[in-house]
Write a structure and sequence with these properties.
With about 325 residues, the chain is an alpha/beta fold. The protein is built from nine helices and 13 strands. A hairpin with a 2-residue loop joins strand 4 and strand 5. Helix 4 (about 105-110) runs antiparallel to helix 5 (about 120-145).
Length: about 325
């Protein structure tokens, strides 16, 4: 482990501005197998471009980088002449991590990949099927970002050699991630099926990946984009559900709700879909609290809204307007 830490330190990327988690429920239609929410993904990609390229004129031409044929399109979009020496393709130092949504969870839950047992034919087949599904989604997200002129590159934890032990990260060489960032690319990672030292294999969730990246690369802030406005005191579809505006995390890792004032300051009821093998909202809160404990502010906000654009661009770091809808999780000494 010490050798790995030394290796990571050697390849440490320069300061990271933001790590973004694209929640699977925000970018896919979770009720329909392997269907992308095209409208949300397009808006999120545009907002990421605006956030990454602060200071550029809104009229700056978007230089698309997806030069492959798209389904339903007869022509390939490739404007090579636009990429002269004075072309602007640089952006802020961001990392994007996405969940699986309606991709991967079905295959993983049907085969029990998250429980391990690669010696079982069904689990081995499920491992393959899960990775086909999540890498398919990863490619589509990379392409959506590339169409917005973002120099995105897909990186699968399994292919990068990441592994777990008892479902906790045991090995995660970040040298290729750091190299990509230092070379001007935006790494796009995702929840993945990986080897596990104890049970053979498991599912490494995007939320756990974000926490590890935050610990090692120390971004200025982290944004979780979800399909709801933030963290609620109970499932948001229930009557009288209250949006938690601010959660404070203490040194011991315990947390409590600061805004609004609740009778029970750390009672939050959550639900997990039957096919979700990564823990749902409870995992997000836990991982976000661990990131906040590092002194890094975390914003949980609804994707493809004006509120998400404010969080992504860093506007909220100096002041959070009263009309901003989302949840801030921060460290208090």
């Amino acid at each position: 482990m010490e050798e790995e830490e030394e290796k990571q330190e050697k390849h440490q990327a320069k300061s990271i501005r933001c790590i973004v988690k694209l929640g699977g429920a925000a970018i896919t239609c979770k009720s329909e197998l392997e269907k992308i929410n095209e409208e949300n993904l397009e808006i999120v990609s545009s907002q990421l471009r605006q956030a990454m390229m602060l200071g550029q004129s809104p009229s700056t031409k978007v230089l698309g980088m997806d030069w492959s044929k798209r389904h339903g399109k007869s022509e390939v979009s490739c404007s090579v002449d636009d990429f002269g020496n004075d072309a602007v393709v640089d952006s802020s130092r961001f990392i994007v991590v996405h969940g699986a949504g309606s991709f991967g969870h079905f295959q993983a839950s049907k085969s029990g990949v998250h429980k391990g047992g690669l010696d079982q034919p069904l689990v081995k087949a499920g491992f393959v099927a899960t990775r086909i599904s999540v890498t398919t989604l990863n490619l589509e997200i990379v392409r959506a970002l590339a169409r917005e002129g973002i120099a995105s590159v897909g990186m699968s934890p399994f292919s990068c050699g990441w592994s777990t032990c008892e479902r906790n990260i045991a090995s995660a060489d970040l040298s290729i991630v750091a190299k990509a960032i230092d070379s001007g690319f935006i790494p796009v990672l995702h929840g993945d099926a990986v080897f596990d030292g104890l049970q053979g294999c498991t599912i490494l969730s995007g939320d756990v990946i974000i926490r590890h990246l935050a610990e090692q690369l120390k971004p200025e802030y982290v944004v979780f984009l979800t399909d709801v406005f933030g963290v609620y005191d109970r499932p948001p579809i229930e009557p009288n559900a209250v949006l938690l505006r601010e959660i404070a995390v203490r040194k011991d890792g315990n947390w409590s709700v600061v805004k609004p004032v609740l009778q029970n300051k750390n009672k939050v009821e959550t639900t997990v879909a039957a096919h979700d093998t990564t823990g749902g909202m409870l995992t997000k809160i836990t991982e976000a609290a661990m990131i906040a404990k590092l002194g890094i502010d975390v914003y949980i906000v609804k994707a493809a809204t004006s509120h998400s654009l404010m969080a992504l661009s860093g506007e909220l770091r100096s002041n959070i307007p009263d009309d901003w809808l989302g949840t801030l999780i921060r460290f208090v000494s």
